[in-house]
Amino acid sequence: MAIDLVNFDVKARKAIRLFWQGREAARKKQLTSGKQDQGERAGVTGGKNMDGFLSLARDIVHANGLEHADIHLERSVVTLPGYFRPTKLWDMLVINKGRLIAVLEFKSQVGPSFGNNFNNRAEEAIGSAHDIWTAYREGAFGETPRPFVGWLMLLEDGPGSRSPIRDKSPHFPLMPGFSGASYADRYNIMCRKFVQEQLYTTASIILSPRSASTTGEYSELSELTGLRTFVSTLAGHIAAEAVR
Predict the structure, then answer these.
(1) Could you list the residue range(s) of the whole structural domain that residue 14 is in?
(2) Burial class (CB in 10 A: 0-12, 13-18, 19+), 97
(3) What's the domain count of the chain?
Protein backbone atom coordinates (compact mmCIF):
# COMPACT_ATOMS: atom_id res chain seq x y z
CA MET A 1 0.00 0.00 0.00
CA ALA A 2 1.52 3.31 -1.13
CA ILE A 3 1.55 6.04 1.47
CA ASP A 4 -0.14 9.37 0.78
CA LEU A 5 1.77 12.51 1.84
CA VAL A 6 -1.31 14.70 1.12
CA ASN A 7 0.66 17.37 -0.75
CA PHE A 8 2.32 18.19 2.57
CA ASP A 9 4.58 20.99 1.30
CA VAL A 10 1.63 23.11 0.18
CA LYS A 11 -0.19 22.48 3.46
CA ALA A 12 2.93 23.21 5.50
CA ARG A 13 3.32 26.56 3.79
CA LYS A 14 -0.29 27.34 4.57
CA ALA A 15 0.29 26.33 8.20
CA ILE A 16 3.28 28.67 8.41
CA ARG A 17 1.33 31.58 6.94
CA LEU A 18 -1.39 30.97 9.53
CA PHE A 19 1.26 30.78 12.28
CA TRP A 20 2.74 34.20 11.55
CA GLN A 21 -0.63 35.78 10.79
CA GLY A 22 -2.05 34.38 14.02
CA ARG A 23 0.78 35.83 16.08
CA GLU A 24 0.35 39.23 14.51
CA ALA A 25 -3.44 39.17 14.96
CA ALA A 26 -3.01 38.29 18.65
CA ARG A 27 -0.52 41.11 19.10
CA LYS A 28 -2.82 43.66 17.47
CA LYS A 29 -5.78 42.46 19.52
CA GLN A 30 -3.88 43.02 22.74
CA LEU A 31 -2.77 46.46 21.60
CA THR A 32 -6.39 47.37 20.93
CA SER A 33 -7.53 46.08 24.32
CA GLY A 34 -4.81 47.99 26.13
CA LYS A 35 -3.66 44.84 27.93
CA GLN A 36 -0.54 44.02 25.98
CA ASP A 37 1.74 41.24 27.28
CA GLN A 38 5.41 41.96 27.55
CA GLY A 39 7.66 41.23 24.58
CA GLU A 40 6.84 38.35 22.26
CA ARG A 41 4.29 36.85 24.63
CA ALA A 42 1.66 39.08 23.00
CA GLY A 43 1.85 36.89 19.91
CA VAL A 44 1.56 33.65 21.86
CA THR A 45 -1.37 34.15 24.20
CA GLY A 46 -3.87 34.05 21.33
CA GLY A 47 -3.24 30.30 21.15
CA LYS A 48 -3.84 27.95 18.22
CA ASN A 49 -0.73 29.17 16.37
CA MET A 50 0.21 25.62 15.34
CA ASP A 51 -3.26 24.55 14.24
CA GLY A 52 -2.17 24.31 10.61
CA PHE A 53 0.26 21.52 11.50
CA LEU A 54 -2.41 19.70 13.48
CA SER A 55 -4.59 19.86 10.38
CA LEU A 56 -1.75 18.47 8.25
CA ALA A 57 -1.25 15.53 10.62
CA ARG A 58 -4.99 14.84 10.68
CA ASP A 59 -5.08 14.78 6.86
CA ILE A 60 -2.22 12.24 6.84
CA VAL A 61 -4.12 9.98 9.23
CA HIS A 62 -7.29 10.12 7.16
CA ALA A 63 -5.49 9.65 3.83
CA ASN A 64 -3.56 6.55 4.90
CA GLY A 65 -6.38 4.25 5.91
CA LEU A 66 -7.61 5.45 9.32
CA GLU A 67 -10.38 7.79 8.22
CA HIS A 68 -12.54 6.51 11.09
CA ALA A 69 -9.91 6.71 13.85
CA ASP A 70 -10.51 8.97 16.82
CA ILE A 71 -8.31 12.06 16.47
CA HIS A 72 -8.24 14.03 19.69
CA LEU A 73 -7.23 17.68 19.66
CA GLU A 74 -9.15 19.32 22.48
CA ARG A 75 -7.34 19.95 25.76
CA SER A 76 -9.85 17.89 27.72
CA VAL A 77 -9.09 14.70 25.75
CA VAL A 78 -5.36 14.82 24.91
CA THR A 79 -4.17 13.63 28.32
CA LEU A 80 -2.22 10.38 28.71
CA PRO A 81 -1.09 8.68 31.90
CA GLY A 82 2.56 9.06 32.77
CA TYR A 83 5.02 7.02 34.80
CA PHE A 84 6.95 9.71 36.67
CA ARG A 85 3.89 11.97 36.90
CA PRO A 86 0.18 11.25 36.85
CA THR A 87 -0.62 12.70 33.43
CA LYS A 88 0.79 14.60 30.46
CA LEU A 89 -1.05 16.82 27.99
CA TRP A 90 -0.08 16.29 24.35
CA ASP A 91 -1.16 18.23 21.27
CA MET A 92 -2.73 15.36 19.32
CA LEU A 93 -3.68 11.76 20.00
CA VAL A 94 -4.75 9.18 17.43
CA ILE A 95 -6.67 6.20 18.86
CA ASN A 96 -8.08 3.38 16.75
CA LYS A 97 -10.36 0.72 18.24
CA GLY A 98 -9.03 1.49 21.69
CA ARG A 99 -5.35 1.31 20.64
CA LEU A 100 -3.02 4.28 21.02
CA ILE A 101 -1.63 4.78 17.50
CA ALA A 102 0.08 8.17 17.48
CA VAL A 103 1.06 10.93 19.89
CA LEU A 104 2.21 14.27 18.54
CA GLU A 105 3.69 17.46 19.95
CA PHE A 106 4.03 20.68 17.93
CA LYS A 107 6.17 23.49 19.33
CA SER A 108 7.29 26.92 18.17
CA GLN A 109 9.87 29.47 19.23
CA VAL A 110 10.54 33.00 18.10
CA GLY A 111 13.11 35.56 19.23
CA PRO A 112 14.53 37.51 20.77
CA SER A 113 14.95 35.20 23.80
CA PHE A 114 16.29 31.95 22.37
CA GLY A 115 18.61 30.80 25.16
CA ASN A 116 16.31 30.06 28.09
CA ASN A 117 13.51 28.95 25.80
CA PHE A 118 15.76 26.41 24.08
CA ASN A 119 16.79 24.90 27.40
CA ASN A 120 13.17 24.74 28.57
CA ARG A 121 12.03 23.09 25.33
CA ALA A 122 14.86 20.57 25.49
CA GLU A 123 14.19 19.60 29.10
CA GLU A 124 10.45 19.30 28.47
CA ALA A 125 10.87 17.17 25.34
CA ILE A 126 13.43 14.83 26.90
CA GLY A 127 11.36 14.37 30.04
CA SER A 128 8.13 13.76 28.14
CA ALA A 129 9.76 11.12 25.95
CA HIS A 130 11.23 9.21 28.89
CA ASP A 131 7.90 9.42 30.69
CA ILE A 132 5.72 8.10 27.86
CA TRP A 133 8.03 5.21 26.95
CA THR A 134 8.38 4.12 30.55
CA ALA A 135 4.60 4.26 30.92
CA TYR A 136 4.31 2.21 27.72
CA ARG A 137 6.76 -0.37 29.06
CA GLU A 138 4.70 -0.65 32.23
CA GLY A 139 1.49 -1.31 30.29
CA ALA A 140 -0.21 2.05 30.73
CA PHE A 141 -1.69 1.85 27.21
CA GLY A 142 -2.40 -1.87 27.14
CA GLU A 143 -0.58 -4.56 25.20
CA THR A 144 -0.26 -2.82 21.85
CA PRO A 145 2.52 -2.15 19.32
CA ARG A 146 4.67 0.91 19.98
CA PRO A 147 2.81 4.10 19.06
CA PHE A 148 4.26 6.75 16.81
CA VAL A 149 5.56 9.58 18.99
CA GLY A 150 6.48 12.69 17.02
CA TRP A 151 7.94 16.09 17.96
CA LEU A 152 8.12 19.09 15.63
CA MET A 153 9.61 22.53 16.23
CA LEU A 154 8.94 25.63 14.12
CA LEU A 155 11.78 28.08 14.81
CA GLU A 156 12.05 31.69 13.72
CA ASP A 157 14.70 32.03 11.02
CA GLY A 158 16.84 35.07 11.77
CA PRO A 159 20.19 36.25 13.12
CA GLY A 160 19.26 35.29 16.66
CA SER A 161 18.66 31.64 15.75
CA ARG A 162 21.41 31.32 13.12
CA SER A 163 24.37 33.02 14.85
CA PRO A 164 27.06 30.90 16.56
CA ILE A 165 26.78 30.77 20.36
CA ARG A 166 29.70 30.63 22.77
CA ASP A 167 29.15 28.35 25.75
CA LYS A 168 31.09 28.12 29.00
CA SER A 169 31.93 24.71 30.43
CA PRO A 170 34.82 25.26 32.85
CA HIS A 171 35.27 21.66 34.02
CA PHE A 172 34.67 19.42 31.01
CA PRO A 173 34.51 20.01 27.23
CA LEU A 174 31.21 20.17 25.39
CA MET A 175 29.97 17.10 23.59
CA PRO A 176 30.99 17.01 19.89
CA GLY A 177 28.97 19.28 17.62
CA PHE A 178 27.79 21.79 20.20
CA SER A 179 30.83 24.08 20.24
CA GLY A 180 29.87 27.31 18.45
CA ALA A 181 26.55 25.86 17.33
CA SER A 182 23.66 28.26 16.74
CA TYR A 183 20.28 27.64 18.34
CA ALA A 184 19.06 26.29 15.01
CA ASP A 185 22.00 23.89 14.95
CA ARG A 186 21.30 22.87 18.55
CA TYR A 187 17.72 21.99 17.69
CA ASN A 188 18.93 20.00 14.70
CA ILE A 189 21.42 18.07 16.83
CA MET A 190 18.77 17.48 19.47
CA CYS A 191 16.20 16.19 16.95
CA ARG A 192 18.77 13.88 15.39
CA LYS A 193 19.68 12.45 18.79
CA PHE A 194 15.99 12.08 19.67
CA VAL A 195 15.62 9.69 16.74
CA GLN A 196 18.95 7.92 17.21
CA GLU A 197 18.23 7.30 20.89
CA GLN A 198 14.62 6.28 20.09
CA LEU A 199 13.14 8.95 22.32
CA TYR A 200 10.86 9.96 19.44
CA THR A 201 9.82 8.01 16.38
CA THR A 202 10.73 11.09 14.41
CA ALA A 203 11.60 14.68 15.31
CA SER A 204 11.70 17.67 13.01
CA ILE A 205 13.06 21.22 13.05
CA ILE A 206 11.92 23.69 10.40
CA LEU A 207 12.82 27.37 10.20
CA SER A 208 10.74 30.23 8.92
CA PRO A 209 11.30 34.04 8.83
CA ARG A 210 8.67 36.51 9.99
CA SER A 211 8.25 37.64 6.39
CA ALA A 212 6.67 34.24 5.65
CA SER A 213 3.24 35.48 6.71
CA THR A 214 2.46 35.89 3.00
CA THR A 215 4.72 33.26 1.42
CA GLY A 216 4.77 30.36 3.89
CA GLU A 217 8.52 30.12 3.31
CA TYR A 218 10.45 27.59 5.39
CA SER A 219 13.75 25.74 5.33
CA GLU A 220 15.25 22.59 6.82
CA LEU A 221 18.67 21.63 8.17
CA SER A 222 18.94 17.95 7.30
CA GLU A 223 17.02 15.14 5.65
CA LEU A 224 16.72 13.23 8.92
CA THR A 225 15.12 16.15 10.73
CA GLY A 226 13.20 17.54 7.76
CA LEU A 227 9.45 17.75 7.35
CA ARG A 228 9.26 15.12 4.58
CA THR A 229 10.80 12.54 6.90
CA PHE A 230 8.35 13.51 9.63
CA VAL A 231 5.23 13.19 7.49
CA SER A 232 6.36 10.09 5.59
CA THR A 233 7.21 8.27 8.83
CA LEU A 234 3.82 9.18 10.27
CA ALA A 235 2.04 8.13 7.07
CA GLY A 236 3.85 4.78 7.02
CA HIS A 237 2.96 4.10 10.64
CA ILE A 238 -0.69 4.92 10.01
CA ALA A 239 -0.80 2.75 6.87
CA ALA A 240 0.67 -0.19 8.79
CA GLU A 241 -2.00 0.15 11.47
CA ALA A 242 -4.73 0.34 8.83
CA VAL A 243 -3.95 -3.15 7.53
CA ARG A 244 -3.75 -4.91 10.90
Answers:
(1) 8-165+174-242
(2) exposed
(3) 1
